[in-house]
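Thanks for the sequence, V.! I ran Carboxylesterase type B domain-containing protein right away. Repeating your input here for the record:
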Amino acid sequence: MEFGNAVGPPWNGTDWHQPMYDRIVNRTGCSASPDTLQCLREVPYGTIYNNANEGLEWSAAVDGTFFEEYPQISYSERGLAKIPILLGTNTDEECIAQLITSKRWVINREEATQLLTYHANDPALECPYGWGNVTWPKLGLMYKRYASMAGDLTMRGPRRLLAQTLARYEKQVYSYRWDVAALNTSSTIGVGYFAEIPLFFSNPAQDIT
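Predicted structure:
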């Protein structure tokens, strides 16, 4: 796995995606059709293009058929493919807007309270790591603390879970932390999301996407 983990983006049930689908159906004029999916298939490309953007929300859905269960539950209850694996994350993966502002990572008050105990309100200890007491007030007084919590929840925790689970069955399990900043920027905070991609794909100049 080039980066991340098998839990990956938020896995939700079909109840999460249904409202997004309904909004697209309404915007494209298909709400009165007896077969809304077929109607969408027949809508002109330009209409779909202008109306189907729901942001970075189209992740896998646990529908009980194609995906029977959430990955983190499958690890422990249903098993997984016992194969060699290389997986990792970047040091400051979570210092991006998608992770620290997303409404997709739903936790309850008890879980949030528990997470807070793992992260003291000390900027020198939080993401981006190694920047000391530097803060960005315009991003919020708790930016560094919350970014670290988001990283544990979405990237580091799931990566470690997969690596530790596979290591019970497979010797060739390698988990890494990428700590090299993007080469063509001086404005990015920390070693964030996507920093490793150009080098992994032999394009350090980052002149292609």
